[in-house]
# Entry
Amino acid sequence: MIRTQQPSLALGVWLLACAAVVWIMVVVGGITRLTQSGLSMVEWAPIMGTLPPIGEAAWLAVFEKYKAYPEYQQLNLGMTLAEFKQIFWWEYGHRVLGRFIGLIYLLPLLFFLARGMVPKGWGWRLFGLFVLGGLQGLMGWYMVKSGLVDVPHVSQYRLTAHLGLAIVIFVCMLWFAMDFLRGAMPQRASSQGYRRLTALAVLVIFLMMLSGGFVAGTKAGFIMNTFPTMNGQWLPNELWAMSPWWRNLFENPVTIQFLHRVLAMLVVGVVLALFVVARKQNFTTRSGWLLTALGVQVSLGIAALVLVVPVAIGAAHQAGAVVLLATALWCAHSARKMPRSEAL
# Structure
């Protein structure tokens, strides 16, 4: 069997397509959360759960199971079957999309391996990514279970872990795709300072997305809906209301929203610095797109806040975060896959 050691266009396109579907998955997950649909499926059936209820009797049986749990009893008492179906379909779609990602990832991977198209040293990376996808499914159910208890509200820790793992999978897919797709690159040099700034941009955007998970998990976006101050205060009085102090960082909605704003400003500062340095490096186009993506994302974040998180704008804000991260990864990848010059 002939094996190629060169990056494959087919592998790159496949990984890029998988990353795009993961992006859709993150957006659908955001809509599922915003429509309060995440606890509508109270069982985890990886195989049988692929098919939805068929027929009135099956729907009634699923609805009766939902009625036995606190979300119905405390929040949705009196909900009709038609109303239940509306939230069920979002959670069902989210789970089926996860299975779909597994199929479009594993089946082509097996094909590429059988044809000897996977370069040496890449097999373990690509299979490791598949394992991460399986763990993501388990993490999703672990998150849902935290809301099927006395308090019908998923743990913000588990929600953020679920989101964070999805981001890691997306980052790996996109980075690997760019590895395969880069082909013959222009002979441009990037300085050490520029490379470090691109890495810092990726890091702070990732941290901001994680803080967004805590905002979502504690519903911090539904309070203090003013900008630039928080209900007229730059430093809210409730900022350190919990004891011990560290709980405020993860459980106090006021502190969590405040930190999300601070991280957003940090991202703005890093991206602006990156844009300035990029002009000296002939990377202006890439950094310009990053600056544009940041402007759109900041605008969506402010709109989501002051309008008290409408579903459409909240979902767009989550989608924009992934686009912003992808653009930062593009900048970082191009800086590292070209010949390097001396540091600034």
Q: What stands out?
A: The CA atoms of residues 167 and 206 lie 8 Å apart. Residues 1-5, 339-344 have pLDDT under 50 and may be disordered. Residues 1-183 form one domain.
